Amino acid sequence: MRYRRGCRGWQLAALAFILDRATKLWVTRRSAGGGPLECPAPGEIIPGLVACRPVRNTGMAFSLLSNHPWLLSAVTALALAGIAAWLIARPDEHPLTRAGFWLIVGGGLGNLADRLALGYVIDFIKLEFVRFAIFNVADIAVCVGAGLALIGLMGAERGKERRDGG
Questions:
Q1: What is the per-residue pLDDT across 135-153, written as a single tens digit (0 to 9) for each?
Q2: What is the pLDDT of residues 56-94, one digit of tens each?
Q3: What is the 3-state secondary structure (H, E, C) of the chain?
């Protein structure tokens, strides 16, 4: 059974990528000399909840592998190519699984674009009510995508078990 409802997955990836790029462009202004990143209206976006605090992240999640930008770029590009190839080869996968993986592709491309163009990723969303890393829209897409993919994979497995009588 081939799923054809709603938008195509690449459109979801494109939306995640465009939202990431647009928010990073809106949030940051770099001086001609590569000066500090600035928010258009520095400070809290939602008082007490979310603030705009742009930073340069040279690593991956939680600044891991900060001194290896080309390795991160290469691994990211290979992983995204692998996920996209899998999605193209497996059009009958559960819709949540496909949506999740396409979100991962879109978010991954957003951060990869930063890494290739700037040598770092622009993070700017800071949660004020909890001690947590500063992140961006691409990170949100990757995390939400991973959650959806996991739910979809678990749902597909349960459906298979029911069909097989187990």
A1: 999 999 999 999 999 999 9
A2: 888 876 666 777 788 889 999 999 999 999 999 998 899
A3: CCCCCCCCHHHHHHHHHHHHHHHHHHHCCCCCCCCCCCCCCCEEEECCCEEEEEEEECCCHHHCCCCCHHHHHHHHHHHHHHHHHHHHHCCCCCHHHHHHHHHHHHHHHHHHHHHHHHCCEEEEEEECCCCCCCECHHHHHHHHHHHHHHHHHHHHHHHHHHHHCC
pLDDT given at position 1:
38
Regarding pTM above 0.90, the answer is no
User: What is the identity of the amino acid at 11?
Assistant: Q
List Cα–Cα distances, 15 to 8, 22, 33, 44, 48, in angstroms.
Answer: 11, 10, 31, 25, 29
29 has a pLDDT exceeding 50:
yes
Q: Which positions are annotated as active-site residues?
A: 123, 139
